[in-house]
Every structure is written in C-alpha cells, then in structure tokens.
UniProtKB/TrEMBL annotation:
Identification of the protein by name: Multifunctional fusion protein
Origin species: Pelomonas dachongensis
Protein family membership: Belongs to the EPSP synthase family.
Residues of the full protein shown: 447 to 664 of 666
Keyword Acetylation: no
Basic and acidic residues bias: start-end ranges: 172-182
Amino acid sequence: EDIPVITIDGPTASGKGTLADETAKALGFAVLDSGALYRVTGLAARRAGLNLDDGHAVAAIVPTLKLGFRDGHVFLGEEDVSARLRAEATGLLASQVAVHPPVRQALHDLQLSFRRLPGLVADGRDMGTALFPGADLKVFLTASAATRAERRHKQLISKGISANITSLREDLEARDERDKNRSASPLEPAQDALLLDNSDLSIEESVTQVLDWWQQRR
Ligand code: C5P
C-alpha cells in the first residue's frame, strides 16, 4: 500500500484523460483510465443484447470479458476497440451500466490491479472517493460545460467526424446529471480533493499545477 497514487476525478470531457496521461508520463507512473472499463462493459453488454437496466446481468459478463491493455489501446479478445470506446454513444452506454452497484463491484478489483510501482495516476469519477480513498494526492478537475463541449467538438472535427456542438453539450450534461445523481459512488469531490478549474488553462499549465501539488505532498 505504499505505492503512490494520484487520483483525477471530474465530469465528462473535463480533460482528465489528457491530464492523467501527461502527469503519468512526467512521473513515469502507470495510468488507470477507469472510464474505459465502464465503456467496454457497456459496449459488450449492448453487443450481447443485454437489458442495460439489469445490473446483475451486466455485472455477470464482466468476468467473461477477455480484456487486453497494450500501448494505451484496449482489446476485447483480438479486437482493438479503442476507437469504438471513445465514441459518444459508448460514453452513454457506460453511464447507463455504471449506475448499478453490482457492475461497480465487478470492476473493483480489476481497477485496483493497475496499482504498481513506481506509482499510479487513476482517472474517473470515484477514484478519490471509492477506489483509492487513501491516495497521496486527489485532484477534482472541472471546466465549464461550454468549454467542455467546445473541446469535444474540436476533437471530433480534427478526427474528421462531424458533430453538433449543441447536441454534444446536451449529451455531456445528461451524462453528468446521471453520474452526479446516482446513489452508487456519485460524481463528487473527495473531502480532501484539490479543485482545479482548467477552463482557462492550457494542458501544460494544468500538468504543472498537478506536479507542483505532487512535489508539495512529498
Ligand atoms: O471518463 P469517461 O467519460 O470515459 O467515463 C464514461 C462513463 O463511465 C462516465 O460517464 C461514468 O458514468 C462512468 N464512470 C464511472 N466511474 C468511473 C469512470 C467512469 O461511473 N470511475
């Protein structure tokens, strides 16, 4: 348990993934993208034709998934599902299955298994509250809904995917509502989390802030 952990929680499209990756790179730490686990579970449940409101049925497929994590890519069996996982539609599936306590329980140990030396940066919704309550540094990352929708829009356009900024914003606000209002591990800052609003910060400035906090903690 003396393997250091930095948690980064926050709403959809707040930049958690990028901040986690860059912070981990700077420190040589491993990364846990916990959202990817909920996404792959939602995708597999949908493909299996399961009722996504049936938490026990969805949880039951988790141990059967042949998940692989290589070079930042996620594999389901032999299939590289990384691109599919990033789709907005998969994010919505993820937030539907994530409300169920049995699903969260089924993913619990798998998430803890990412903790290894020399340290871990874990990003998600409940990393600092439920998974790693004893983390050395907890960051709660926010940005305005307008900023987040704009960033997501740019990201999609740069990949050649057309998107409507108004509907993107509606989708991410709907997902945030579901994540905040569920009873199982709702999205909320841990009591000892440091708040970072990156609406007006560059990625570099956000990373520098987290690394400064990390230095102060040591
Ligand atoms: O972070 P990301 O957008 O990939 O997460 C997708 C969805 O998975 C979230 O909207 C949330 O419902 C769920 N999730 C969660 N707990 C986590 C990470 C993600 O409930 N630790």
